[in-house]
């Protein structure tokens, strides 16, 4: 874990988050990256990572119904620094559940809107 000698701050690499309806998400941005949704753990090829200026976006597949739809969950993990005197910092972020309609003939064969989104606020701690 990197610590800045001047500031005494350590970048956070572990997150424990909850939604208002009690869904628990635990994520680690240390190697190896992982994300747990309630009791299900995702890592490696089952976890897509997008590094952005705003933080990390971790995406997992929730459901796949051939010739119908695919459901994914993306969790935004903001960058943060834990002060030396603190055990953790408070985190407020969100997740996006995406339902992408599909057709064996491809997305052009789907009538209307192809993706539907549902956002959910998440709060918790990081260390």
Gyration radius from CA atoms, angstroms:
17 Å
Distance between the termini: 11 Å
CATH topology: Lipocalin
Mean pLDDT: 93
Q: How do the helices and strands follow one another from N- to C-terminus? A: EEEEEEEEEEE
Structural class: mainly beta
How many strand units?
11
**Amount of beta strand:** over 45%
| Uncertain runs | none
Q: Which oligomerization state do the chains in this entry correspond to?
A: single chain
- Spatial order of the strands forming the largest sheet: 5-4-3-2-11-10-8-7-6
What would the principal axes of the Cα set say about the shape? elongated
Q: Percent of residues in helical segments?
A: under 10%
The CATH C-level name is Mainly Beta
Count of all domains: 1
| CATH architecture assignment name | Beta Barrel
């Amino acid at each position: 874990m990197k610590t800045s000698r001047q500031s005494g701050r350590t970048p956070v690499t572990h997150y424990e988050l909850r939604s208002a309806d009690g869904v628990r998400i635990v994520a680690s941005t240390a190697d190896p990256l992982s994300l747990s949704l309630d009791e299900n753990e995702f890592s490696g090829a089952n976890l897509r990572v997008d590094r952005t200026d705003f933080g990390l976006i971790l995406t997992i597949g929730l459901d796949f119904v051939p010739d119908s739809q695919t459901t994914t969950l993306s969790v935004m993990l903001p960058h943060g620094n834990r002060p030396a005197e603190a055990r953790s910092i408070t985190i407020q972020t969100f997740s996006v559940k995406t339902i992408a309609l599909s057709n064996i003939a491809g997305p052009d064969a789907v009538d209307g809107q192809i993706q539907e989104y549902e956002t959910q606020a998440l709060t918790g701690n990081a260390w």
